């Protein structure tokens, strides 16, 4: 039975408690921003904003999964990371489909709404990134949370650039290009998370091999 009477174990318990509290905060931020961006994205006709809204939704779900497996064994945490990696990859594929739709319909989004909502989203993700910074080099589960938030900040900056591009060109191409870049970021992040999680799965099997029934 593990003992938590020493300073190291007590410190680990306290760190886990802080991480759990941070996850609840960033989950709430992402859930609220999903609602804000999905409404604004549909109203403005922006592929980039809609993609960013779904990214907020995926992150909120991912943080919920992270809270669920927090304190579980490495094997279960790596399974959660695999689920999150797969969800990021699916998000990237959805964005690619959305980009194709907007190209075919030649939509021109409202650049003012894109810029205003993009600034709010950037501030929200900046807060999340700062809160999660201390856990950027953790296990696959923690690292996946950090990668999601890092990609979100990059995506928000890209959305603001797209708003300026739409304003300057009067076309929807900047919005479409940014949405495509966001898809690539999601797929690359998903690949990184899945590789790390599979590595931890192998490590967990080596430490605790599954018994073979005879």
TrEMBL record:
It is a multi-pass membrane protein. GO terms for cellular component: membrane. SUPFAM superfamilies: Cation efflux protein transmembrane domain-like. InterPro entries: Cation_efflux_TM (IPR058533), Cation_efflux_TMD_sf (IPR027469). One of its GO terms (molecular function) is monoatomic cation transmembrane transporter activity. It is found in: Membrane. It comes from the Bacteria. Residues 23-199 form the Cation efflux protein transmembrane domain. Keywords: Membrane, Transmembrane, Transmembrane helix. The chain crosses the membrane at residues 21-44, 56-74, 86-104, 110-133, 153-170, 176-198. Gene3D superfamilies: Cation efflux protein transmembrane domain (1.20.1510.10). This is Cation efflux protein transmembrane domain-containing protein. It comes from Thioclava indica.
């Amino acid at each position: 039975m593990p003992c938590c009477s020493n300073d190291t174990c007590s410190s680990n318990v306290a760190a886990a408690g802080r991480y759990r509290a941070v996850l609840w905060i960033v989950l709430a931020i992402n859930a609220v921003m999903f609602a804000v961006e999905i409404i604004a994205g549909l109203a403005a006709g922006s592929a980039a904003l809609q993609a960013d809204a779904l990214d907020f939704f995926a992150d909120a779900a991912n943080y919920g999964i992270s809270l669920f497996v927090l304190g579980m064994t490495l094997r279960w945490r790596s399974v959660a990371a695999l689920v999150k990696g797969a969800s990021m990859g699916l998000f990237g594929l959805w964005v690619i489909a959305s980009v194709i739709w907007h190209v075919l319909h030649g939509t021109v989004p409202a650049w003012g709404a894109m810029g205003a909502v993009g600034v709010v989203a950037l501030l929200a993700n900046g807060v999340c990134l700062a809160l999660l910074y201390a856990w950027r080099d953790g296990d696959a589960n923690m690292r996946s949370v950090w990668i999601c938030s890092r990609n979100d900040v990059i995506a928000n900056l890209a959305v603001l650039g797209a708003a300026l591009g739409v304003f300057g060109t009067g076309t929807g191409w900047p919005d479409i290009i940014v949405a495509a870049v966001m898809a690539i970021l999601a797929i690359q992040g998903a690949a990184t998370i899945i590789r790390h999680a599979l590595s931890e799965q192998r490590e967990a099997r080596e430490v605790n091999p599954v018994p073979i029934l005879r």
